């Protein structure tokens, strides 16, 4: 059974989410503001967070940053903010997905399930696990850890999943469509802006010169390739 933390100051939305989530056997905690959300995230250790950005005491982006300071729990933003810049800001802060209000409950629940799946360890065989070494960083597929210059690198679940798909296909071109399907789910086929945002984040965290990447190579119009 998975635990969901719902963060929203609109009682009717909280009520609808709680009813629908509990009907699907989720355990649910609810927070009406950012401070309560941060406390419940630390106390209850949810498996996924559903977060509104327009909170009464602080901006939801600051809540994302606060949660990302210590955990990679999936964060699904649910917000009335619809501009591209606002979405990119939330994703850059560490959100894993973004749903705009008004929303369809079925779509929201599908994205929530996808976020939970991405955060779970892969069920691959032992021979799939290994450590991939580059001159700048190492990727431990079994432990789901990345080390760079002697330190752990913090990655969000989505960043890790994207990295994992590329690393498991070292040297091979992975198409945009395949990456979107593998990382975000079969209903995502055209959201190439997601890939641009997350590839930029991986490069900032792992490349010596993110503007001229050596390991995460773009094949314009086609996809991406990981090179050791």
UniProtKB/TrEMBL annotation:
One Pfam family of this chain: Trans_reg_C
Listed GO CC annotations: cytosol; protein-DNA complex
TM annotation in the entry: none
Keyword check for Repeat: no
Positions of post-translational 4-aspartylphosphate modification: 52
Name of this chain's protein: Transcriptional regulatory protein KdpE
Subcellular location: Cytoplasm
Matching InterPro entries: CheY-like_superfamily, OmpR/PhoB-type_DNA-bd, Sig_transdc_resp-reg_receiver, WalR-like, WH-like_DNA-bd_sf
Function: Member of the two-component regulatory system KdpD/KdpE involved in the regulation of the kdp operon. Upon phosphorylation by KdpD, functions as a transcription regulator by direct binding to promoter regions of target genes to positively regulate their expression.
Keyword entries, A-Z: Cytoplasm, DNA-binding, Phosphoprotein, Transcription, Transcription regulation, Two-component regulatory system
DNA-binding region: 129-228
Keyword Transcription regulation assigned: yes
Molecular function in Gene Ontology: cis-regulatory region sequence-specific DNA binding; identical protein binding; phosphorelay response regulator activity
Residue ranges of every copy of the OmpR/PhoB-type domain listed in the record: 129-228
Organism of provenance: Streptomyces boncukensis
SMART domains, A to Z: REC, Trans_reg_C
SUPFAM superfamilies, sorted: CheY-like
């Amino acid at each position: 059974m998975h635990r969901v933390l719902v963060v929203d100051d609109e009682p009717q939305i909280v009520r609808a989410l709680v009813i629908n989530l509990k009907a699907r056997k989720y355990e649910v905690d609810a927070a009406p503001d950012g401070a309560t959300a941060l406390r419940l995230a630390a106390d209850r250790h949810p498996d996924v967070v559903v977060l509104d950005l327009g909170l009464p005491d602080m901006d939801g982006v600051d809540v994302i940053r606060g949660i990302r300071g210590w955990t990679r729990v999936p964060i699904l933003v649910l917000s009335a903010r619809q501009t591209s810049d606002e979405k990119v800001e939330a994703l850059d802060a560490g959100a894993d997905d973004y749903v705009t209000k008004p929303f369809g409950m079925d779509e929201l629940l599908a994205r929530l399930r996808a976020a939970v799946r991405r955060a779970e360890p892969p069920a691959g065989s032992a021979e799939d696990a290994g450590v991939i070494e580059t001159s700048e960083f190492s990727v431990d597929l079994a432990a789901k850890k990345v080390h760079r210059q002697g330190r752990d690198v913090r990655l969000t679940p989505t960043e890790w999943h994207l990295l994992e798909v590329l690393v498991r296909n070292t040297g091979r071109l992975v198409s945009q469509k395949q990456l979107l399907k593998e990382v975000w789910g079969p209903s995502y086929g055209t959201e190439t802006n997601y890939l641009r945002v997350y590839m930029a984040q991986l490069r900032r965290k792992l490349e010596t010169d993110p503007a001229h990447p050596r390991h995460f190579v773009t094949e314009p119009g086609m996809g991406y390739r990981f090179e050791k």
